[in-house]
Input
Amino acid sequence: MAQPIERKLKPKADGQPSSSFERKMMWLTTISFFVILMAIGAGTILREDRVSSQLENRALAQAVKPTVQGVISGDDMVKMESYFTDQLLIRGTFVEMQARLSKNVLRQPFRNGIYTAEDGYLIEPSQAAQPIVPDAFRQFTQEVDRPVYFALAPSKTVVAERDGIIPDYVASNAIQRHKTMQAGFTKAGITSISLDRLQLSDYFKTDHHWNIDGAYQAYDEIVRTIGKTEPALKKVEVNPGSKRSSEHPYFGSLARKTTLAYASTGDTIEYYGADQFKGIDVCYDNTCGQPLIDEKFIKEEGDYADRYEVFMRGNHGILSMTSKTKGPKLLVLKDSFANPVLPFLARSANLEVVDVRYVNKDFDASEFAKQQNVDAVLFLHNSNIAGLMKTYQQKL
Amino acid sequence: MLFSSTIFLFLFLPFVLLVYHLLPRTFRNGWLLVASLFFYAWGEPRFVLLMLTSILINYLFALAVHAYRTRIGVKWIMFSMIVVNLGLLGWFKYSGFFVTSINETFQTTLFVPEVVLPIGISFFTFQAMSYVIDVYRQAGQVQKNPLNLALYIALFPQLIAGPIVRYETVADEINHRRETLPEFAQGVRRFIIGLSKKLILANGCGQVADTIFNMKDLSMGLAWIGIIAYALQIYFDFSGYSDMAIGLGLMFGFHFLENFNYPYISKSVSEFWRRWHISLGSWFRDYVYIPLGGNRVSPWKQYRNLGIVWILTGLWHGASWTFVAWGVYYGIWIMLEKAFLGKLLARVPVFATVWTLVLVLVGWVFFRAETFPEAITYIQAMFVPDVLWDDRASYQLVQNGVILALSCLAATPIPKRIGERFVESSGKVGQTMQYGYAMVLLFLATSALVASTFNPFIYFRF
Output
């Protein structure tokens, strides 16, 4: 067996510093190291704990009350480490710094599964199993005994895939899944409202939602299709001059996943002023007169403020939008994707809006439609809703 | 506790360092021992008792060896010491593997004990044995104070992932050491470099390796990217940990031996093992190979001795037949090099480097794979693939090409040599850059630690 060489490799001390400058640098190294570690550690302990992180869009771990059993098993130590890491001083800065390293030094075009296209669009390619439209949709269509429509917008990934923006080497079957879902709804007896003409420019660069132009196109297509059987449903034009823009840039859900390093430019969130929607009474949480457009969210400080909540202050289980319109009464089953469309649609019809993610567990959509005596039912989603199918199976 | 955890970095380490350097010298060992036990207890408190038991037993064995050195019975004391230590290691690390192997071989249904592996047991058991053996050989003084022995075995910088510090290396420093500013600053830089190796390079490469090893139907390109990424991950993971240990040692006045010396530039497998996990190789050489007769016996006995050492090396790394195969694989190549291959390789140094690298990469497949069929399938993809290149390989190359290239470069002595020459030739500018470089790395490593939840320490399972 050959002789190891470890003896030659015993680390040698630097020896005595050869100059006062060298000695100063040693002091600087030692003190900096110590001060940085101490400052971050002490700062983390002394600072008030935060409940959630806007950047990461999640609740942060909270202080742990140790138990004998938890300490013996080591579980409490694991929780304490999560707590300390989550609450770490300048945590957001470290996360952004790491993202900048990934983008600018390691030249990684993907971060957390999100691809940065050359024009700044953040795209989330995905390869998943083909979705199955549950039989509950067919049963619902039969039970509700009213026309049922499905406006299935292509997800941003579908459009990017269609336009060849996702590199060839990235596996993504979003188009295939979109088509499978469309076919499933048609098979369930639901009339399809095609939104396939949407372009990438109809979506936010840094968020998975569509922008106001995409939403307006969808409104146009919905009115055109449903209007064929409900002639009272007519498109009401908006005044282009009342279109407003946020002063602060908008960094959406995909920016949160990639950080500002990747979402360098941000979006401008546009909306029509509340004056365009006068006479529409918005009710939710047992209170009417709720704002349809709430500019508080537009003016909010913070890079990752959720400005998309400008529309009806976000999602609500059941929401009604009524006016003196002569249009029909529609039940809209939706998720957040529909929010910018609803103000337009509320000028053409009276709406009962249900987000099945936030209703009681015994909610029954077909019973609700009958109770509300709606004229038609509209599902309004983008094609990335495979995860919602189980909920629909229970609620329809 | 992990070195690469926020609690260690921002609470434990600065607090322990501060108190240590404020205390009078008399109390420093005591403080370091308390801190080390807390460090070990943080992850698995119940195993502190096991470690303390091991320390106590070996303390008594060493006293007995010292007292009865000249009598015949000393060999029985040494034999008992080996049986007790290996018994302890065997029960916690190998009992499940042993019984499972019997059940599979003889179709029996013996009860398979489910024993939790205490962190670092392989390291602290070997260190404890090293202590008694060194006392027996009079390579180090017997410790009358059990707290000093406990400090040697439990010293937190090297406790759970090495390097395996031999007693003779630090025996004098336990009671007589000097902490100096140059060494402290050197330790800080070394620690930061190790932390960066682990958090930036090892974890970056580890994500690539894990992704690819979890895939099926690999193309040739993908298989090679995967194993290269794994080779880099394991090197930077373990050598990074050793750097951190050495750096921490210097901050407390200890001098641990180097554990790695650019192993991937080796020109033979024998050389690779003189550059990789040096402390383990020298432990087996001095405490197993040489006592068996080493090179001073007939050629066949030399090969027998090598076979024993390499089977044990494989087993030390893990209780699995794939680890045994990995050890045997290296044993065979080292025997061949000893017989004739070494002389041939010496004539063609460039080819020898590439050849050795390929052999090492194939060895890592056995090390990484959970089962033999998995390893064979992977090796087939590397050498006799169905597909040469696919989109998944392109993705890995585009997404991770830079980190892999940087890691390949960092695995050679080139960056260090360039850095040293720059510092030597550019005077104050160089020294300032050296300081700035360390601080930038500290922030980058911390950002990687905070941002990433991907933080496995491969060597902890040993």
In short: Chain A has two domains: 52-88, 122-395. Chain A touches chain B through 62 residues (CB under 8 Å). The first strand of chain A starts at residue 52 and ends at 53. Confidence is low (pLDDT under 50) at residues 1-15 of chain A.
